[in-house]
Automatic annotation (TrEMBL):
Species in which this protein is naturally found: Hyella patelloides LEGE 07179
Protein name as it appears in the record: Nitrate transport ATP-binding subunits C and D
A Pfam family annotated for this UniProt entry: ABC_tran
Classification of source organism: Bacteria, Bacillati, Cyanobacteriota, Cyanophyceae, Pleurocapsales
Main localisation: membrane
Residue stretches making up the ABC transporter domain: 22-266
Assigned GO CC terms: plasma membrane
Membrane topology, from the record: Peripheral membrane protein
Alphabetized SUPFAM superfamilies for the sequence: P-loop containing nucleoside triphosphate hydrolases
InterPro entries in the record: AAA+_ATPase, ABC_transporter-like_ATP-bd, ABC_transporter-like_CS, ABC_transporter_ATP-bind, NO3_transporter_ATP-bd-like, P-loop_NTPase
Family per similarity comment: Belongs to the ABC transporter superfamily. Nitrate/nitrite/cyanate uptake transporter (NitT) (TC 3.A.1.16) family.
């Protein structure tokens, strides 16, 4: 196997390159500091902030990838660039060989805050996404897709409810159904279970595993939970602390699929991987705290 690029401890092999779907090259993001009129009014200045620096990464088709790292290191910044919601200051993201410069129907996004339209019912929220992305598809077909996705996420019976009538877990089921309804090639999830209680979170993790087994879409998920990442992922990207955060290491998760919590937790590799992730997060978070004190 030939290595054609090596950066950020990441060696990309030619075998992987054949199956690469998402490709990041030298991606950096700098948020500009406050200046100009704001500076004149407040007397305060701040310099530019390098959130992420020189990230190189290849993600293969149909893999489930998690991103983990200390708080504020730049996980959402990275995901938003892949989503096309934010522009890289340097470098680029390619999906199937095309440069990403805006959001597209090939990417479905699930947010921690659900981002549902509060005045719309469950089915209207999902239909809105379908109509927007596929305006030329017949209404019958649009309705069929909405019904199918409602069934897939276990919301049958709640079609006419509005978000305020739903629990957090049910709202996120709508968020997942909406993202899948546009039939994206790639599912991007920014801490999708972050706002949920532990029990609901556990149920939804299992739902995502079940849905992923059925659909096998490429998925990129940000999470703060080591157990969640290990249950769902094929690869776990461990980011360093910011500023100028990068990729420290990528873990391969060897557990067979389909997965369930018990078999995953009893796998001989589980404890070692968990320990490695805990050590990484402890080390990076401690470095953040030390930098804050200095
Ligand atoms: N629009 C912005 N302007 C200036 N700085 C920003 C902006 N957005 C993010 N940042 C900074 O960039 C860094 C990375 O933020 P980001 O939200 O990507 O981190 P994160 O790893 O997703 O955080 P968390 O784990 O807390 O969700 C942070 O220091 C944040 O304050």
């Amino acid at each position: 196997m030939n290595t054609y690029l090596s950066s950020n401890n990441l060696a990309v092999t030619k075998d992987n390159a054949l199956n690469t779907q998402i490709s990041l090259r030298h991606v950096s993001k700098v948020f500009p500091g406050r200046s100009g009129w704001f500076n004149k009014i407040t007397g305060q200045t701040s310099s530019d902030f390098i959130a992420i620096a020189d990230i190189n990464l290849d993600i293969e088709h149909n893999t489930f990838v998690s991103i983990i790292g200390p708080s504020g290191c730049g996980k959402s910044t990275l995901l938003n660039i892949i989503a096309g919601l934010s522009e890289a200051t340097n470098g680029n993201v390619m999906i199937n060989g095309q440069i990403v410069n805006k959001p597209g129907p090939d990417r479905g996004m699930v947010f921690q805050s659900y981002a549902l339209m509060p005045w719309m019912t469950v089915e209207e929220n999902i239909m809105f996404a379908v109509e927007t992305v596929y305006p030329n598809v017949s209404v019958t077909q649009q309705k069929r897709v909405v019904k199918e996705k409602i069934q897939l996420v276990g919301l049958t019976g709640a079609e006419k409810k509005r978000p305020h009538e739903l629990s957090g877990g049910m709202r996120q089921r709508v968020g997942i159904a909406r993202a899948l309804a546009i039939n994206p090639e790639i599912l991007l999830m920014d801490e999708p279970f972050g706002a949920l209680d532990a029990l609901t979170r556990g149920f939804l993790q299992e739902e995502i595993e079940r849905i992923w087994e059925q659909q096998r879409k490429t998925a990129i998920m940000i999470t703060h939970s080591i157990e969640e990442a290990l249950l769902l992922s094929d690869r776990i990207i461990m980011m360093t602390k910011g500023p100028a955060a990068g990729i420290d290491e990528i873990l391969e998760v060897p557990f067979p699929r389909p997965r369930d919590r018990t078999t995953v937790e009893n796998h001989p590799a589980y404890l070692k991987l968990k320990q490695e992730m805990e050590d990484h997060l402890y080390r990076e978070t401690r470095a953040v705290e030390e930098a804050r004190i200095k």
